[in-house]
Amino acid sequence: MNEFLPFALPDIGEDEINEVVDSLRSGWLTTGPKTRRFEQDFAAFIGGGVEALAVNSATAGLHLALEAVGIGTGDEVITTPHTFTATAEVVRYLGAHPVFVDIDQNTFNIDPLKIEKAITPRTKAIIPVHFAGLACDMDPIMAIAKKHGLKIVEDAAHALPTTYNRKLIGTFDTDATVYSFYVTKTIATGEGGMVVLKNKEIAERCRVMRLHGINRDVFNRYSSTKPSWHYEVVAPGFKYNMTDVAASLGIHQLKKAGAFQKRRSDMAACYDKAFADLPVILPPKSPKEDLHAWHLYVLRLGDEVAISRDRFIELMAEKGIGCSVHFIPLHLQPYWRDTYNLKPQDFPNALAVYERAVSLPLYTKMTEKDQERVVEAVRWVLNF
């Protein structure tokens, strides 16, 4: 029997391993020179004069960004229910309330046409989520934000190196963009994230709050050759800094981001071709001039498929193939459902996508044979 093929694996090479070993030998295990180097490399990769602040997770980055733009008790932040809970939970950290807006069923991203209807006098920000690596339709979202004086914090956990109108996500006129480097993401540091910002004041607030509200760079304090022990705590900050061990992975993963995207895109095209004659709905595509990061390949079972999505996943597992679901919409989750008195049909597009969607394995360490196994299993499950 074939070995079980997992849903996702990171693609770590000798360069990453050697850089981690170098950090271990250097004595710098926490935030230090490798983290700074990763930040500088990332800012240069995004371009447009941005600042990049490394953090220990995208969740931390979203929290920092919302706090820095002034979200507080009683405020409302518009986002999508078709996301991981982190997107909304950070709003609650600040005593504010997420207001969910349904997705466009063709893109799985927040529907700009529904955003304006959800705005109230308490609305302060929008968090668009670039689902699966496909960019949200940012032009109308930015126009709405400008019209109503709202902040925009982009959840780009899936979106490196996604483009919109031929420009990288992270370069637009928004207040912050947050990336994830979780182990399954398009580049991986195990745990970790990056906050990308253009506004110097917002960047400085994030920098201070990232490490206990201290107004000095901890690396400079500990690496200085002169007495440099004094610091000031200027705010009740958080413990969100990235370690040099994680940054060591990120430095070399970032160099491969373009090649990783090309490989993922080729694999997605292979799946599309293999499934074209099946009773399924293929994932949404980006315009030809833009890059889709292809963090996920989400297949939707057509109405004519007799089995449920859950049974599909069980049968795929019997064939040795790991699958997943992205996402269980937040309005179905007990906390969000009960706190805000939400019902399944409140967001019919998110519900419809969820009930028939399955994420297939798509990662750069997969071989052609691995992908052939996935295709064969899908066709077997669907009796094709």
Can you walk me through this structure?
- It is a single chain.
- With 384 residues, this protein is an alpha/beta fold.
- The chain has 2 domains: 242 residues, Type I PLP-dependent aspartate aminotransferase-like (Major domain) (Aspartate Aminotransferase, domain 2, 3-Layer(aba) Sandwich), CATH 3.40.640.10; 125 residues, Aspartate Aminotransferase, domain 1 (Alpha-Beta Complex).
- It is 39% helix and 12% strand.
- The chain contains 14 helices and 12 strands.
- The strands form 3 sheets. It has a 7-stranded mixed sheet, with helices on both faces.
- Helix 1 packs antiparallel against helix 9 and helix 3 packs across helix 7.
- The radius of gyration is 21 Å and the shape is globular.
Q: Rough shape?
A: globular
Average pLDDT works out at 96
Secondary structure: number of strands: 12
Low-confidence stretches: none
| Strand residue content | 5-15%
Helicity, as a percent range:
25-40%
Q: Work out the count of structural domains.
A: 2
Largest sheet: 7 strands, mixed
Number of helices: 14
State the CATH topology of the largest domain: Aspartate Aminotransferase, domain 2
Q: List the helices and strands in order.
A: HHEHEHEHEHEEEEEHHHHEEHHHEH
Structural class given helices, strands, pairing?
A: alpha/beta
| Fourth-level CATH superfamily of the largest domain | Type I PLP-dependent aspartate aminotransferase-like (Major domain)
Distance between the termini: 21 Å
Class of the largest domain, according to the CATH hierarchy?
A: Alpha Beta
Q: Major sheet: order of its strands?
A: 1-9-8-5-4-2-3
CATH architecture of the largest domain: 3-Layer(aba) Sandwich
Report the radius of gyration as a whole number of Å. Answer: 21 Å
